[in-house]
Amino acid sequence: MHHALTVFLVSLFLLWGGAVAAQEPAKNWEGTISARTLNVRAGPAKNQGIVAKVKRGDRVQAFDEEGSWVHIRGFDDSDNTGWVSRSFVRLPKDFMAPAFGDVENAFLEWASARGDLSVVSIESDNRLSLVLDLAEGQSRAATVALEVACAYRARLALEVPVVATVWPEAGPRNGWIAQVSCP
What we know:
By secondary structure, the protein is an alpha+beta fold. The chain has helices at 2-21, 102-113, 141-155, and strands at residues 29-33, 37-41, 50-55, 59-66, 69-73, 81-85, 89-90, 117-124, 127-132, 162-166, 178-182. The chain has 2 domains: 29-90, Roll (SH3 type barrels), CATH 2.30.30; 102-182, Alpha-Beta Plaits (2-Layer Sandwich), CATH 3.30.70. Strand 2 and strand 3 (50-55) form a beta hairpin. The longest helix is centred in the first third of the chain and has 20 residues, at 2-21.
């Protein structure tokens, strides 16, 4: 009986794994190398080992980024991946742009039109990141975050709380300015 249960669980796991593998692959963007010769590294840093070299005009598939580094594949005959400096690869304008539906896009247009935000980013189904316009100041950060979080929740008819975090213009190094949840 124990053996039969183990076989059943392993079969279920394999079926589930196959279903996950059959899901749509991650989005790729075609990029073109602009440097005369460029090192492809094992990780997103100069101190990472060199796994290959590419040259000007080579086409690669970019599928992720970390800081100033782009994760690529298609630079050799295998499906190996590596990292290159973003400065030396030409990518389309929509590189890493999230694919949103009409409601999310309408919300982003509304939030941008407010005039008090310099950055609006949908991080997940119920998390937003905001950067206030410099003229706005930090004193209104919590108020603006609450307005935007509640508007997002209402426009998308979400039944879960929406968290909006206001970050400083310099980025998250020093922590957030305000974080609110609606409701």
